[in-house]
Design brief:
Number of helices: 4
Distance between the termini: 43 Å
Number of strands: 27
Organism: Levilactobacillus hammesii DSM 16381
Protein name: Surface layer protein a
Shape: flat
Strand content: 25-35%
Keywords: Signal
Length: about 475
């Protein structure tokens, strides 16, 4: 958006001479007051004329040495604006005047329009100097890794702008006429406001590309975060305000019959009334009531549904009413990797996943979901019996002659000579895992036991897995 001119700017004035006179003070005394010999409009691109005060000069209604010039902003005020952390205190230069004394004055206006006047700019029109200097009002920011699928969170609070607010003179809000509540937006640029440091994304409505502009983006998209802080944007379409005419309360009830939390389904349908059946209506995100109920994001933390909802099971739901859903307190187990123990009754030494050739093995989300169940109930290790293929270690090198003890059925020791390269293959052992995890429950750490077999070789076979390592 903005081109840095590093405090130097060719102003594009063809002539600054007596022939270009726009304003001449004919009443000033030649002996005591200067006369304006030219006062012309700057023709260079507007964005290249963004400036900031240096704090060395005051702002006047006319060039300061001309008779009748009145102070608009004192030197002290201009110094405060020079050190300001607000973009509103930047200026836009739009005219340049030259006196018979050879002094140059720029006419400027603050980005919020509060201050307007002339400020001393030295003796040359080739660059901004003395009272003002060129300013980069924004800085390039890193683009988010996700650029599609955004929604407007609250257009009344954070709308679209032609430029991040106050970084350009007369930056204005963009009309959202025609934009729907379900519209998705794509990010194509990212900048931060230089003084405030606030992040803005440039977004375009995927359904109507005439609707586009800059919007405050909070902390920006974070791929590793479970919740996003996106300012005026959201990853889901935003529901309307809930009323008895457009919403249904979901009441989550635990095993003891007490409520453990609620959530609210708000329809995107128009003109609905209290006691109307919800039927197949959807919310702003496009979810039916059954899908909304089944979404774990809406379930109270630490609980799972006893039975998933279906369209049939919620068919009697009405606006202004309540749907009661049974839930259970859940717990999620984690998995740690172990070598076998010598006694065969417990796990042996814990393995470091950073020593595996591809780090911690990835699992599908379906497999990871099986690690969650009712709290305080037994966990059967047979659940993970088919989770893991053989895992290879990184390539190792023997620093001395050694004998490696392999494990598993009919395993024999392997002799490795000093300087030999080798790797270890870890193979999941279901029986040893079951023995090492007697009496564990959901929420406990599962000690997965792997037999070890060494191979002397200069390369490690490729070992890839797809899914998540968040387990």
């Amino acid at each position: 958006m903005q081109k840095s001119l590093k405090n130097s700017l060719y102003l594009g004035l063809a002539v600054l001479s007596l022939g270009a006179v726009a304003t001449v003070n004919t009443t000033a005394s030649a002996a005591s007051k200067a006369k304006v010999m030219s006062d012309v409009t700057l023709k260079t691109p507007a964005e290249s004329r963004n400036v900031e005060a240096t704090g060395t000069n005051a702002l006047y209604s006319k060039p300061g040495t001309v008779k009748g010039a009145k102070r608009v902003a004192s030197k002290s005020t201009m110094k405060k604006m020079a050190n300001s952390k607000k973009s509103a205190d930047y200026f836009r230069a739009y005219r340049v005047a030259k006196t018979n004394k050879g002094l140059v004055y720029y006419k400027v206006v603050s980005m919020n329009g509060k201050y307007r006047g002339y400020i001393y700019g030295g003796r040359s029109t080739k660059n901004f100097a003395k009272g003002i200097q060129s300013a980069d009002t924004t800085q390039k920011a890193t683009m988010p890794t996700k650029t599609t699928g955004y929604h407007l969170a609250n257009a009344k609070k954070n709308g679209l702008w032609t430029a991040p607010k106050n970084t350009q003179y007369k930056a204005k809000s963009v009309s959202l006429y025609g934009a729907g509540s379900k519209d998705t937006f794509t990010v194509s640029n990212a900048e931060t406001k230089t003084r405030e440091g606030s992040l803005y994304y440039y977004v375009t409505d995927d359904q109507d590309n005439s609707i586009a502009g800059w919007i405050y983006a909070g902390k920006g998209y974070n791929a590793s975060a479970t919740t996003q802080s996106l300012g005026g944007l959201a990853m889901k379409a935003t529901d309307a305000k809930a009323t008895v005419d457009n919403s249904v309360t979901i009441n989550y009830v635990g095993a003891n019959g007490n409520s453990v939390g609620t959530s609210t389904f708000v329809t995107a349908a128009k003109n609905t009334k209290q006691n109307d059946k919800v039927g197949a209506a959807t919310n702003a995100a496009g979810d039916t009531l059954a899908k909304f109920v089944n979404d774990s994001a809406n379930t109270p933390a630490g609980y799972k549904l006893d039975t998933p909802a279906t369209d049939a099971s919620v068919s009697s739901a009405v606006y202004g009413g309540t749907v009661t859903v049974s839930v259970y307190k859940s717990a999620t187990s984690t998995i740690a990797f172990y070598a076998p123990s010598t006694d065969g009754l417990t796990a042996g030494t814990q393995l470091n996943v950073n020593d595996f050739s591809n780090g911690k093995p990835a699992l599908s989300t379906d497999k990871v979901a099986k690690l969650t169940g009712p709290a305080d109930t037994p966990f059967a290790t047979s659940i993970i019996d088919h989770f893991f293929s053989p895992i290879n270690s990184k390539l190792l090198k023997a620093t001395s002659d050694m004998t490696f003890t392999n494990t598993g059925d009919n395993a024999k020791p392997t002799t490795i000579k000093k300087g030999d390269s080798y790797y270890i293959t870890y193979t999941y052992n279901a029986a040893k895992t079951a023995t090492a995890n007697a009496n564990i429950k959901y929420g406990d750490t599962i000690r997965a036991v792997f037999d070890q077999q060494v191979t002397v070789n200069n390369t490690v076979p490729s070992d890839t897995s797809n899914g998540t390592t968040n387990y």
